[in-house]
Write a structure and sequence with these properties.
346 residues, alpha+beta, 7-stranded mixed beta sheet, two-stranded antiparallel ribbon, 4 helices, globular, disordered N terminus
Amino acid sequence: MIHLPLRRHLVGPIRLAFTLLGLPHTVWTSGVRPAVSCPSSYPFPTSKTISAVNTSYCRRSSTMPSSAGSHVKSRCPQYPGSNIKRLSVPDDKVDWTQKWPEYEPVSYTAPSVLNNPAWADPDIGSFSPKFNTVDGAVDRTSFEGSYKVENGKPLNPCGRTGVAGRGLLGRWGPNHAADPIVTRWKVDVKGAKVHHSASKKPVLQFVSIKRKDCGEWAIPGGMVDPGEQVSLTLQREFSEEALNSLSSSPEERAKIHQRITNLFKSSGFMVYKGYVDDPRNTDNSWMETVAVNFHDDLGNSVSELPLEAGDDAGQVQWVDLDSSFPLYANHSHFLEIVAKERKAHW
């Protein structure tokens, strides 16, 4: 039986004060509504710089005795980037506690993962990972608590997905990502905050990238490297994806590093931390993410740096926070939480 100690109830948003990596943050665990449909196929890349796709988490309700309500994209009929068909998992059979002796999903791990890139684990049998703990440099713990291991393989804490193996994901068990949300106030030529004509609230802007894989605007983000602190991942991914620091000269890189360091060492606002309902998830590998908002309140930090898209982004620009702006997956929900926290227009 799988124990889900972090059941989140949708009665209302709960804010918990705690510290992440020595920095003061605030967590807002509001209910994230999953998408009601998902693509039959999707051109996802397999590099370690893939960011989280959707932001739903495991949850139970009194009317649904399974995790099905947050397990939508993880049951897409066709596994992304392949011709693999998932075994159809009905809502009442998602939870591992529901007996289903006939359940025999196809096992699939993408060739790009089986080629043993640096960001991927070897296949089970050739090594013995230590699950539910920090295994050498690789963090195999889950934000959802302890997960079950069966026949040497970890089981998705949100239930059955209709496909076993690792799919496009490198790690057995949780694959940790980090999503930095960098914001500033929109100002006029005199430096005064711009207020929205309808809400009368000040307008926030955030750094958004246009993903090359699907052409949608999104929050920059990527995978946490082994042994890397999440705070460093947030800073690294933002620098690489939004400022293209890898192509900068040593002098420019030093300037960028100093500005980014000053912003990212400030108190951030923890927007989300948990399981991700992602079409790449399988029974044995799944996405989890940490999303943190770093706000350039005075506009004298990253606001003054020219934005330049990195290799994983087609375009990058400051975008006004507004509910009407279409974004990749559930990234708009992250920004809605940020807007409420900053008392800004949404």
